[in-house]
Amino acid sequence: MGSFDELPSGCRELLLTRRNLLFGSLLASLAVGFSATEARAGKIDPAGTAVILPSQIKWSSWSGLPPKSGEMGMLYGDLDKPGPYLVLMRWHPGYYSAPHSYATDRLSLVMSGTWWVNSGPDFDPDNAVPVPAGGFVRRTARTPHYDGVRPDAKEPAVIGIFGIAPVRMELVDRGKPAWRRLRGKTA
Predict the structure, then answer these.
(1) Pseudo-torsion of CA 34, 38, 43, 47, nearest 10°?
(2) Per-residue pLDDT tens digits of the chain, which is 187 residues long
(3) Does 93 share its domain with 36?
């Protein structure tokens, strides 16, 4: 069989017409398929898929702590009832927690900013380790630690924390405040 160009002109036109019809039909079916997918994407069953957009997160101040030290956005579960939870914590510059521990492990992912963490019973923020956005921190149950955001930070740090509730925080030294305000630069 010869090349396409060697065919009589009538055959070439017929083949081109068929090719164009097939190609056009394929494109039309793809367009219908894409538009059907887009239409389905807007109809999520909330019983099976929960979506919370950033603008819908309900932030609240931390109870009993200094004003403007941080906020919490509960995404899933309850910190006081048995079961898993997922919460966002927004730490403002200059605030650290005092050394404390929890009854269960906590898994933390830094979403934005830089979170400074350290472990042990002695408060020493100058030796805290920076964890930038995308970093992961695992806090093992019943081990003392503390964390916060340096006073010279330009933005708060937002941390996603997953754990098993009820949350039971235990301060290393109950005679000192649970939160520390740092002023100026640290080392």
Answers:
(1) 80
(2) 555 456 566 554 544 444 444 444 444 444 444 444 444 556 889 899 999 999 999 999 987 788 889 999 999 999 999 999 999 999 999 999 999 999 999 999 999 999 999 999 999 999 999 999 999 999 999 999 999 999 999 999 999 999 999 998 999 999 998 888 998 765 5
(3) no
Among candidates 93, 101, 94, 145, which has minimal Cα distance to 124? 145
- Tokens at 31, concatenated: 């367009």
Angle (nearest 5°) at CA 48 between 29 and 31: 10
Burial 22-60 (b: 16+ CB within 10 A, else e): eeeeeeeeeeeeeeeeeeeeeeeeeeeeeeeeeeeeeee
**What is d(CA 86, CA 163) in angstroms, rounded to the nearest whole number?**
7
SS3 118: strand
Instruction: Name the residue range of residue 172's domain.
Output: 54-181
HSE, CB side, 13 Å, CA atoms: give it for residue 108.
23
On whether residue 186 sits in a domain, the answer given is no
DSSP letter for 75, please: E
Give the separation between CA 170 and CA 178, rounded to whole angstroms. 10
